[in-house]
Structure formats: structure tokens, C-alpha cells
User: Which sequence fits this backbone?
């Protein structure tokens, strides 16, 4: 006979990590976020280098995969894509500041474009609560405009700032998870 544990929260797939591990991870992430925010220009360059090395690795694997699965079709396209990844990665690794500027410019354009699209979707779905989508789109448009109008100066700090904010929010999220787990009955 099969029994089910109804006390586990919806979506839980296994045992919960110990609370102290969540707190430790949260504290580490907050510390890392504060370190990044302490020198956003340095970590912008570090981010560009990391993305560059990952692009080179992904491109090499794409080319390897093309030869490995030659009979699947799309061989030439996989090779071209792999070469583009490697070339992009080499640019980022060899010129990390230029790469950071390039990444920041692309990010600004992407935020602006996605913001406009979200605003249009929100306006089209206004009756179904599209206002929040319009607000989200407006935030994207503003973020994109801030990046693009301040370019190239923003290219020196935006990636580091976003990484720092992400690490801080990630750490706070883990510590909140541990705190809420304490509040729940065992």
C-alpha cells in the first residue's frame, strides 16, 4: 500500500536543506554581492571575461557536437554557430573592457525592445490586468534608456551593478527561506 506525505509543501521534490546551510549560502551571497558592489567596474570586466570563456567553451562544444551528430542535418549551421561563439568569446577575453561595452550596449537595446513589447502586450490585455505588464515594460524601457543615453560610461559599471544586485537578492532570498522554515512547524 502506498502512502503519501501530505505535510510536504506543494512542489517539494525531496528533503529540505538544513537551515544553517541556507543561512550560510545566503550570507556568502550577500557578502559576494557587497564585494561586487564595492568595485562594479572591476567586476564588470570580470563578468565580460567569464562570459567570453563560456562562449569559447560553448562554441567548441557546438563544433564538436556538429561532427559527433553529422547525420542529423544542420552540420554547416552548427559549425558557423560554433565559430561565431568562439569569435565572440575571443573578443571578450582579448578586450574585456570593449567586450563589457558591447554587452552593455546590447543589454540596453534588449531592455528597451522588451520593454516596448511588454507595454504593447499590457495595453492589449488591459482588461485582464495588463497594467502590471505596462508597468514592467515601462521599467524595461527606462532601464534601457538609462543604459543607452549614458553609453559608453554605463558600460563600465552596469554589468557589475546588476551582478551585485543579483547576488544580494539571491542571498537575501536564501536567508528568507531559512527564516521562514524556522517559523513553520516541524
Assistant:
Amino acid at each position: 500500500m502506498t502512502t503519501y506525505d501530505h505535510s510536504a509543501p506543494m512542489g517539494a521534490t525531496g528533503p529540505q536543506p538544513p537551515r544553517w546551510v541556507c543561512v550560510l549560502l545566503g550570507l556568502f551571497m550577500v557578502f559576494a554581492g557587497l564585494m561586487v558592489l564595492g568595485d562594479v567596474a572591476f567586476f564588470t570586466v570580470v563578468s565580460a571575461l567569464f562570459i567570453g570563456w563560456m562562449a569559447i567553451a560553448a562554441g567548441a562544444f557546438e563544433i564538436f557536437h556538429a561532427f559527433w551528430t553529422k547525420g542529423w542535418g544542420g552540420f554547416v549551421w552548427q559549425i558557423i554557430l560554433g565559430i561565431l561563439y568562439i569569435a565572440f568569446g575571443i573578443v571578450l577575453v582579448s578586450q574585456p573592457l570593449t567586450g563589457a561595452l558591447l554587452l552593455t550596449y546590447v543589454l540596453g537595446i534588449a531592455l528597451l525592445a522588451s520593454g516596448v513589447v511588454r507595454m504593447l502586450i499590457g495595453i492589449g490585455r488591459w482588461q485582464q490586468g495588463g497594467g502590471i505588464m505596462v508597468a514592467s515594460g515601462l521599467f524595461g524601457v527606462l532601464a534601457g534608456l538609462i543604459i543607452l543615453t549614458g553609453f559608453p560610461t554605463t558600460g563600465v559599471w552596469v554589468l557589475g551593478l546588476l551582478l551585485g544586485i543579483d547576488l544580494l537578492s539571491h542571498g537575501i532570498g536564501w536567508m528568507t527561506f531559512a527564516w521562514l522554515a524556522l517559523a513553520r512547524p516541524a
